[in-house]
């Protein structure tokens, strides 16, 4: 599958790793201005894509910055020990993206629609994050050492609130004056194999809904006035991509050459405006597991002074 097909179907790639794979598959060489680092753990691999200049930004379709991708197929398995390792890997990678004194405020924003399971990752993460900003003001005696002032919110989506999400977040930022935003959102993947097995961290902020064609105002340093870190997990993939992959695999199996099936796929998807996304039937469990991992990683990174056994005391 090439970039021409993706463009013809109006599909943008949320994962920087997938954007790089598509472009490298077409050119056969590394993209100028893009640097890649890799790390391997027992249950996860980490690939960091550095987009270093404007030319690379144009080619990749991603802002200049750092994109850390944690690939961990074990997330789909019922393996709590492995999930704890992935949580620790996430915490360590997250800490690489910020360096703030412990007394500064951090705002966690869970983007998405809590009424639609594939889009409910952000709100589910917020439910499990340790919020402590109020304790600094009203109950400092409850705090242990090594805890930051953290606040959290799930602002909902435009269709529910009638307000652009970025406007809500910006209003909270103006009132509470955090030094950093961590935004969590559901993503769309080019490969179905990456659904609920891949976590992307980026220091470039986020555009809510961009992966499924909903163009919303960005939540980034330019719009918020402070640094924004984004954490995303693919929870859907495009039906057009699944259809094209199936056609390519079939033609290859019979010795044929894959052709451009975009017109036929558009015709099939016409009742949905050409924009149909697909999610696994077990998405409820996958969202629950990934939300727990992401919230755990954020808690570890934000509050190094307390352990997982102490989280329940502070969760309300």
TrEMBL record:
Pfam families xrefs: Peptidase_A25 (PF03418)
The EC number(s) this enzyme carries: 3.4.24.78
Lineage: superkingdom: Bacteria
HAMAP family reported for this sequence: Germination_prot (MF_00626)
Assembly and interaction partners: Homotetramer.
Physiological role: Initiates the rapid degradation of small, acid-soluble proteins during spore germination.
Name of protein: Germination protease
Gene: gpr
